[in-house]
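To the wet lab folks,

You asked to see what we're planning to order before we commit. Fair enough. Below is the target structure as tokens, and below that is the sequence we designed to fit it. If anything looks off to you, flag it before the synthesis order goes out.
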């Protein structure tokens, strides 16, 4: 039912005249009501009474109930330019055309597919020729039969015979037969006349071919055999074999998604369905086909239902959709709101689907200041990684592809001829051994000498970082406007600001070491905080993501994060970042079969499900061999790759207490740390050359000796002051305790 206001044909003036006319239908007592005035009185604020209170407890006005929502608030937003400025524009050109790497990958795939089909059918060309020759006589017979039926109008013969049989009981059908006979005679006469030129043309063509060269005759024979062979082919036996076997996947429909969500037994969804919600309004956009790999659905869940709840039930959702688990990938679209679900259903299981090869496998170089290919997402799009200006952590349970992901990142780094690669395989199985020919520092194992090698190398890198900060600080603003290493600065050999990438597999071995764990933690924390600005990238990887394996100072400051399958929310947030699990980014949803698949966070605005490119050991050695050639041309074979070793003499902690006591003497109960390291360098130049006050502090820390403010005199200026230093009595007590714990004096 419509009101008069809804109909432009309603005569308001006539209605008002009827109301004001004493003789009108409403009688002499009728009056005109000003609706706008009544509404304004209802919505006007109520003034307080004299006692400072209000009359909210009074009865509502006689005009009717008070409106809670104003009329303006209930109106739909009008057309405005501001609204369209905020609207998201759909790209004119598809994403795979705008991405050079993705377009090149698709083009390469199409070219490879064409070459495969060409080679497949080319090899079977003799078989196809024999088939055509065998079927050609059948084709000739079909053509002759067809032409004969057309020439003599045999198509109409069943109709004429039916009329003849009908004329037995119905004599009037005889006239119909006569008409059909005359029509047939006219057709045969006309078609016979047209057959004469066709026969003449056929004989003429035969004569020309008989007089033509042999090549032309063979070509004509081949064409005739091909044509008649195709015509004579059986319906159920095609000529060509199948070069590619394709498995068709069932399309995804909104009804299927709705019923699958209803089967998850989520309270908010169940309540909405009981209220009569059929799910038609849940889909904010049509389900689309993406990149030829699957279907994407945007689902706005009922109010109060979070998309993370559906993500937690990924296995049940896959069962409800009757799809393999590796095909169903629900995600939270947090850009809209927590209840917006993005569901991608792939044609093939992501863990088993054939993945395109790594684009850098056989050719190409890497600029670490720019992204390089790291993996693919469930839609088949390339996912990139940029290692400069960011540190990265990798975590998962064992046997999920953590080490392969670390090795892939280091393989990309080694293809930048400027970069130093430091690879530490603390698992000791040699998974990072392919990188040895290009590594500036390399070690495999967790024996004591391996740990000493690692601490010496990390001290070396921390010293290098401090040198770099000084170089950057002294550069003019026009060369270094942002006070950090840039692509151009890294290419200047004179500055020594080349990229440095450090990969540590099973990093918990370092951080949990009883002697050097604290120093490892301090150095790595310093590198992960200050290193990126100086061109140093740290990549620790662990299969035990907890507070000990990934100290808070490291896990909280990493920018890039790659988390494969983990078992709980603590491990999830330890790798991916605080509150990621609550936000719906949950690596716990991955199955054990999802090897090499995880969430990559920090590279883009949102974490992306990524399947890393799988490169085995022999293939990695081939990539490193190519990287070695590039480095030889660039003159950047250094450290371990050049046959150099790291001295671990300065790492020894067994004589540090004795050496400190020796340089302090009885006459110096307290000394500044700077004075002590100078005296140590004189005492043992081969061990303490370049030894710093910070290194002294870390060396004494495991023995319980702490630095503090001590009063001393500068030997150069004779000025007295309070500075960081050590008390000799504390060192003596620590030495006594160490010898007592070991049962004998001297070295451990």
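Sequence we intend to order:
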């Amino acid at each position: 039912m419509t009101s008069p206001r809804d109909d432009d044909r309603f005569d308001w003036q006539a209605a008002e005249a009827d109301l004001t006319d004493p003789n009108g239908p409403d009688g002499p007592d009728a009056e005109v009501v000003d609706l706008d005035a009544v509404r304004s009185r209802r919505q006007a604020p109520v003034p307080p009474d004299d006692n400072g209170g209000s009359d909210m407890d009074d009865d509502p006005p006689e005009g009717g109930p008070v409106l809670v929502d104003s009329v303006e608030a209930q109106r739909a937003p009008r057309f405005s330019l501001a609204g369209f400025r905020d609207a998201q524009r759909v790209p004119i050109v598809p994403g795979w055309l705008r991405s050079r790497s993705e377009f090149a990958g698709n083009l390469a795939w199409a070219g490879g597919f064409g070459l495969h089909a060409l080679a497949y059918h080319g090899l079977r060309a003799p078989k196809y020729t024999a088939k055509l020759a065998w079927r050609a006589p059948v084709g000739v017979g079909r053509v002759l039969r067809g032409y004969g039926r057309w020439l003599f109008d045999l198509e109409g013969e069943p109709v004429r015979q039916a009329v003849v049989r009908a004329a037995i009981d119905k004599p009037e059908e005889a006239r119909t037969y006569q008409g059909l006979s005359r029509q047939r005679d006219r057709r045969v006469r006309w078609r016979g006349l047209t057959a004469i030129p066709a026969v003449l043309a056929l004989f003429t063509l035969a004569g020309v071919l008989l007089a033509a060269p042999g090549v032309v005759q063979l070509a004509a024979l081949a064409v005739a055999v091909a044509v008649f062979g195709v015509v004579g082919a059986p319906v159920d036996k095609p000529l060509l074999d199948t070069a590619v076997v394709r498995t068709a996947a069932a399309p995804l429909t909104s009804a299927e998604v709705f019923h699958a969500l209803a089967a998850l037994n989520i309270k908010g969804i169940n309540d909405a369905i009981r209220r009569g919600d059929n799910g038609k309004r849940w889909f904010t956009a049509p389900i689309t086909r993406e990149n030829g790999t699957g279907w994407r659905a945007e689902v706005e869940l009922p109010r109060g239902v979070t998309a993370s709840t559906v993500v937690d039930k990924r296995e049940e959702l896959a069962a409800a959709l009757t799809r393999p688990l590796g095909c169903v990938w629900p995600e939270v679209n947090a850009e809209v709101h927590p209840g917006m679900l993005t569901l991608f259903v792939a044609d093939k299981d992501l863990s088993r689907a054939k993945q395109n090869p790594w684009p850098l496998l056989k050719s190409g170089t890497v600029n670490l200041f720019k992204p390089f290919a790291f993996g693919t997402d469930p839609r088949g799009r390339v996912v990139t990684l940029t290692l400069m200006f960011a540190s990265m952590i990798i975590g998962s349970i064992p046997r999920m592809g953590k080490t392969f992901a670390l090795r892939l990142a280091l393989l990309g780094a080694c293809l930048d001829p400027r970069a130093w690669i430091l690879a530490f395989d603390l698992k000791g199985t040699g998974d990072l051994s392919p990188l040895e020919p290009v590594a500036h520092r390399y070690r495999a194992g967790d024996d004591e000498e391996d740990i000493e090698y690692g601490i010496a190398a990390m001290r070396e890198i921390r010293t290098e970082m401090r040198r770099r900060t000084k170089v950057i600080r002294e550069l003019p603003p026009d060369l270094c406007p942002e006070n950090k290493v840039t692509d151009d600065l890294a290419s200047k050999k004179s500055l020594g600001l080349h990229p440095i990438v450090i990969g540590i597999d099973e990093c918990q071995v370092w951080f949990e070491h009883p002697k050097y764990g604290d120093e490892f933690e301090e150095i790595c924390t310093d590198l992960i905080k200050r290193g990126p600005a100086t061109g140093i990238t740290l990549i620790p990887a662990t299969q035990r993501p907890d507070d000990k394996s990934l100290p808070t100072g490291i896990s909280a400051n990493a920018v890039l994060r790659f988390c494969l399958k983990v078992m709980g929310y603590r491990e999830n947030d330890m790798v991916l970042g605080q509150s990621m699990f609550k936000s719906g980014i949950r690596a716990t949803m991955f199955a054990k079969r999802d090897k090499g698949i995880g969430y990559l966070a920090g590279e883009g605005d949102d974490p992306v499900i990524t399947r890393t490119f799988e490169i085995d050991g022999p293939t990695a050695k081939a990539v490193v061999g190519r990287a070695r050639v590039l480095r030889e041309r660039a003159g950047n074979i250094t450290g371990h790759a050049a046959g150099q070793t790291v001295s671990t003499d300065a790492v020894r902690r067994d004589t540090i207490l004795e050496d400190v006591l020796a340089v302090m003497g009885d006459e110096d109960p307290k000394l500044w740390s700077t004075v002590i390291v100078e005296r140590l360098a004189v005492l043992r130049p081969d061990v303490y050359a370049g030894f710093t006050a910070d290194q002294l502090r870390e060396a004494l820390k495991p023995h319980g000796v702490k630095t503090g403010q001590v009063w001393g005199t500068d030997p150069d200026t004779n000025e007295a002051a309070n500075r960081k230093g050590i008390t000799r009595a504390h060192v003596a007590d620590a030495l006594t305790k160490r010898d007592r714990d070991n049962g004998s004096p001297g070295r451990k």
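Structural context that might help your review: The two ends are 98 Å apart (CA to CA). The longest strand covers residues 720-727.

Thanks,
Computational group
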